[in-house]
Amino acid sequence: xxxxxxxxxxxxxxxxxxxxxxxxxxxxxxxxxxxxxxxxxxxxxxxxxxxxxxxxxxxxxxxxxxxxxxxxxxxxxxxxxxxxxxxxxxxxxxxxxxxxxxxxxxxxxxxxxxxxxxxxxxxxxxxxxxxxxxxxxxxxxxxxxxxxxxxxxxxxxxxxxxxxxxxxxxxxxxxxxxxxxxxxxxxxxxxxxxxxxxxxxxxxxxxxxxxxxxxxxxxxxxxxxxxxxxxxxxxxxxxxxxxxxxxxxxxxxxxxxxxxxxxxxxxxxxxxxxxxxxxxxxxxxxxxxxxxxxxxxxxxxxxxxxxxxxxxxxxxxxxxxxxxxxxxxxxxxxxxxxxxxxxxxxxxxxxxxxxxxxxxxxxxxxxxxxxxxxxxxxxxxxxxxxxxxxxxxxxxxxxxxxxxxxxxxxxxxxxxxxxxxxxxxxxxxxxxxxxxxxxxxxxxxxxxxxxxxxxxxxxxxxxxxxxxxxxxxxxxxxxxxxxxxxxxxxxxxxxxxxxxxxxxxxxxxxxxxxxxxxxxxxxxxxxxxxxxxxxxxxxxxxxxxxxxxxxxxxxxxxxxxxxxxxxxxxxxxxxxxxxxxxxxxxxxxxxxxxxxxxxxxxxxxxxxxxxxxxxxxxxxxxxxxxxxxxxxxxxxxxxxxxxxxxxxxxxxxxxxxxxxxxxxxxxxxxxxxxxxxxxxxxxxxxxxxxxxxxxxxxxxxxxxxxxxxxxxxxxxxxxxxxxxxxxxxxxxxxxxxxxxxxxxxxxxxxxxxxxxxxxxxxxxxxxxxxxxxxxxxxxxxxxxxxxxxxxxxxxxxxxxxxxxxxxxxxxxxxxxxxxxxxxxxxxxxxxxxxxxxxxxxxxxxxxxxxxxxxxxxxxxxxxxxxxxxxx
Length: 871
Known about the structure:
This protein is an alpha/beta fold.
């Protein structure tokens, strides 16, 4: 008998934080050892049937489980001298412990089973199925990073022998893992891949399990009709098969209807799941949390109070059994969100803080594990954002003085710049394979850039439906290949030990008299800003997230091309409602605005906002203020050693400009995103060289290759100026990068595109980086956190401040702005002052006065010292 099907137990996805522990490093061979005797096979079949019936037959668990356990114990005792038989009995013991909600014991059973299977050189597919089940237990115990890392190895293993049914299981498992850690779109692609393999197999039950997940993802994306349709189809199959997943589907339908506002249907489905004797703690917690949400909505305090107590008992009891505070992290966060809300409605600040602080600790611990293995820890933090929103909202209403310290400490983690490391990361034994897998990843990234560009070039209203469908199909295929290439490469990565430093403590600092500091927190159910000047703190309410998004999108649409100045100025005036106008006017001595935007506010061209719509003439903020983007109050005003402003060694300014577009070999290697040359980028380089003479080293034309930006000498420059095409697409925001010159020489080919991952695989020490390409301040949004952009990557890897762009800027206007900017730097101005003067010069000109030309350039900084002393 093979080990239990991973999806058979796992698809109770509330139990199943399903991950695979790969066995790519194990020396597998043909299955060895004695063949099971007929008696042993029959005994295990009987035990497995009892386990199945205890799971699927209502009210029979207390009868069947003891019988199954008795048979399992006899089987274990009788197979001590036969490793394969012992291993398979341990698999049955694992399932028994799962049904008893004892995942620590379940884990130990499967770890012992794997040791026996590996020692007996068992069949690889058998080992992979067991590791699938073990991963399921690991994730429930809170060991998210380990399970997710090893999951990838199991897929690599199964791919080698092309076991399509097993690959479907593994894709499904990895998709579930990505969904649980916040990467919904990656999850969807893996679920779709699993669903396709299941459809090819014709297995109705497995197809329905995939439909269950795809329906939930459809709900997450706002397609409620599709969600309900898929869930109802799956429910019918589970009912017909007398399968316990019927309960899971009740919960999903309850969530569908609750999201649509059909509360009676939602309550009925949730109660069905809660009342069913087959329900395990996972279903009971899920159903109860949803019912608590509905009770909170209706202010039914008596009902909510009982549910809070019941859920706390379930979670505490389960954590005690597992001996782990990390057990079931998603369940804990979902409960914390509604518990905080319940206590806030009752104005119970003590319990609000207790629940919130515990949930924040849990969130950080899981994020730390993910960060150590180069998983997307901020995707997990974004998944935890609903809990944090509820905590912030409660404090905002009950104890506002605690809000700023909470935001400053919670968002202290930087947006990690790189998730992959190039070659040599696992030692010499695997270096060659690591390089090969990394090159596969880079090739997949280039294919994805090409496919995205092809689709983006098609007009949304094109009548050529087949052409759009073909382009979309190529993009979907490119995304899947990119996912798999990344995950395969990550199997080569071994994370170094990570120290668990204590969370930063907020140290209040007075804001200098010259500055006004503004921090934003914009969500749908709580939206506000915090303004500081000197020792004064002012909170100001803002519209909900959806309204702010509409305002920002409208302004960007109008600024995307020149010639709409009047309309753009009116729209920019409407953005003034997002600023504390009275507070700013009250501090007339201030000359600088320091702004911490969250992800929604990141694209806002603050410099162009007209603060006072009562004036006849357009008067943007940049006319009165230097405008700087920062990450935090504490970090920006942190005291650091004084920066020397004396002349540095020759060549401390590096200019990278005017890459050669096109290829230098018959094979096309440069991304199709390159559509036009950048004639003014050469002008920028020449202008900087004239201003600073011997202090400048220029890499232009054919010399502007990726290898230059990867070299230690360039990374050590005091000022790094990059004048090339930036790449960003809202279609695939995970991929950002820079266009470079294509060159094929000895060693690794330089393909004309340098992606985020490779660019930020090592630190930069520049005080100032200027990226004058297009949309270099844009990237993947992380709710509440900000944007993973090229500009953010430079700061994360050590650069002091970065000047980047918010949209596709004019080549000529940017060259003119940079010429004025560098002239002011040469005169001794700080970077924020120099940028303000340069933008004012363009406003005063007849050619570039339109906000399109100058408002898209912005400065982001890690510390005030860098803005004041760029050179």
